[in-house]
């Protein structure tokens, strides 16, 4: 049986959703975050030396990295055409969106979170105006313009179709789910109606709801 080791309230939720979409039998081992650091507990290192989530065990095979785990599952356990045929244009577009989620969109969401915490972090009173000024400058000159650029691109894609690759859900949508939902929590999406519809479609997906019941909602 497949075993998924997942940090609670994390991006590993995407793999739980994928397993539900694929209708796989699997064991879910959840790990609470360290209450002080919010990082994974040391016990995860007993599964893999890096102690990072998610980790997938399939017999003797142990895999880390979300995009690798996701493609492995979709390629070997797929029943619902979540991964297009290898080396077709659709396959490479699917891979492009999966990598885009981790390499282009998610870093902006993390930067947004980091600078939000900078503004509220405890520090000497004389340092607060400086920290807030730096944070404001970074957000206005880089984070917000770049995020708007990416959101416009995604919204334009979704104006043409229900899901990123067409009219059925694929691995691309699973991988994009966390960063696009995070964008919905941190930015005003009123101008991106197709993204708002897309998020609603995700969250009403039956497999998504089963994943929430099994592992809880991710914290965005």
UniProtKB/TrEMBL annotation:
| Top-level taxon of the source organism | Bacteria
Q: Which UniProt keywords apply?
A: Transferase
Report the residue ranges that make up the GST N-terminal domain in this protein: 1-81
- Please list every transmembrane segment annotated in the UniProt record, as residue ranges: none
Q: Which InterPro entries match?
A: Glutathione-S-Trfase_C-like (IPR010987), Glutathione-S-Trfase_C_sf (IPR036282), Glutathione_S-Trfase (IPR040079), Glutathione_S-Trfase_N (IPR004045), Thioredoxin-like_sf (IPR036249)
Where the record annotates domain GST C-terminal, the positions are 87-219
GO molecular-function terms, A-Z: transferase activity
User: Gene3D superfamilies of this UniProt entry?
Assistant: 1.20.1050.10, Glutaredoxin
Q: Which protein, by its recorded name, is this?
A: Glutathione S-transferase
